[in-house]
Amino acid sequence: LLATNTRQRLLLLEVPQVTPPTGPGSPIHHAWLLTVDQFERAQKRLVEHGFETGIDPRQSFRAIGEYNMDIDDPDG
């Protein structure tokens, strides 16, 4: 169980098989509220585990201090 200082909780479970969502609007989107330090640590760890965090194409439109990264789940 991951507990953040923003009162968010995340529980990851390993399951034998994943059924990707289907239908209109099927991609699942999760947003997390992180401090800048937490964001930087998360981004670094994701890269270390082989995920591409990419460059946010909308960064110039975001508020100062607001960051974003998109991660593709290989399981769908």
In short:
The chain has about 80 residues and is mainly alpha-helical. The chain contains one helix and two strands; from the N terminus they run E-E-H. The two termini are about 20 Å apart.
Describe what you observe in this structure.
Helices cover 17% and strands 5% of the residues. It is mainly α and 76 residues long. It has a domain at 32-76. A two-stranded antiparallel ribbon has the order 1-2. β1 (2-3) and β2 form a beta hairpin. The longest helix has 13 residues, at 36-48. It starts with a strand and ends in a 28-residue tail after the last helix.
Task: Spell out the blueprint of helices and strands.
Elements: E1 2-3, E2 9-10, H1 36-48
Antiparallel strand pairs: 1-2
Give a quick account of the main beta sheet: strands, pairing sense, barrel closure: 2 strands, antiparallel
Radius of gyration over C-alpha positions, nearest whole angstrom? 14 Å
- Helix fraction, binned, reads 10-25%
Listing every helix as H and every strand as E from the N terminus to the C terminus, the arrangement reads EEH
Keyword list:
mainly alpha; two-stranded antiparallel ribbon; 76 residues
